[in-house]
Amino acid sequence: ILMNTRLETADLKWTVYPESGWEEVSGSDDEMNTVRTYEVCKFGTPNQNNWLRTTYIPRHGAQRVYVELKFTMRDCFSIPGVPGSCKETFNLYYYESDSDSATQGSPAWMENPYVKVDTVAADSVFPNKKVGRANTKILNLGPLRRNGFYLAFQDQGACMALLSVRVFFKKCPAMVAGFASFPETVTGAEPTSLVIAPGTCIPNAVEVSIPLKLYCNGDGEWIVPLGKCTCGPGYEPAKKHTVCK
């Protein structure tokens, strides 16, 4: 996990533009835990363009990351005399950087230099500002090449609360199979990528067939084992074939 706002107890202090747009408040999630949230509700004036940018997120070797968003959205049609500028969507962007170099005015608050991930629509909207079921969306972005990145949210006239943001990546855990050990391996740049992990025989084991390798798929699961080892002379399998003793 690279970021999880549900675990934060102090102010997030993300960057907002303009200052009259997104507002950080203390709220409650659907399990009544106190969380730091951002809200915006400026649909009354047309041509809204409110941006919210996270702090810098180091990617720790991840090439593709997943963003879980929990948010509530007001039903435009439930608001009396609502203008046509009311929205029930918002946009998610990201910006890559080798260091925490963003400022209030840089990068510029527009789609380029940011990269758009998607327009996020609410499955569930509610008529009353105080009551509503949270929406959960998981999006992915990449391939990432810089040391880290920022996420940015653009509001164009919605009445919504961003309840939590969780950013994570997937990896295949270190494991022993066929008397060979394989290292923890981060998934590839695309959801369909297969990353090769070379294996080594465990202590007191010898190669039977080569090459020793496993493939780590985009879901963080090991598939297609190739090659294997076996316990050497004078040793026998133990601990469910993970040790030669």
TrEMBL record:
It is found in: Cell membrane. Residues 1-177 form the Eph LBD domain. Keywords: ATP-binding, Cell membrane, Developmental protein, Glycoprotein, Kinase, Membrane, Neurogenesis, Nucleotide-binding, Phosphoprotein, Receptor, Transferase, Transmembrane, Transmembrane helix, Tyrosine-protein kinase. One of its GO terms (biological process) is axon guidance. Its EC number is 2.7.10.1. Its main location: membrane. It is a single-pass type I membrane protein. GO terms for cellular component: dendrite; plasma membrane. InterPro entries: Ephrin_rcpt_lig-bd_dom, Ephrin_rcpt_TKs, Galactose-bd-like_sf, Tyr_kinase_rcpt_V_CS. GO terms for molecular function: ATP binding; transmembrane-ephrin receptor activity. The keyword Electron transport does not apply. It is an enzyme of class 2 (transferase). Gene3D superfamilies: ephrin a2 ectodomain (2.60.40.1770), Galactose-binding domain-like (2.60.120.260). This is receptor protein-tyrosine kinase. It comes from Scyliorhinus torazame.
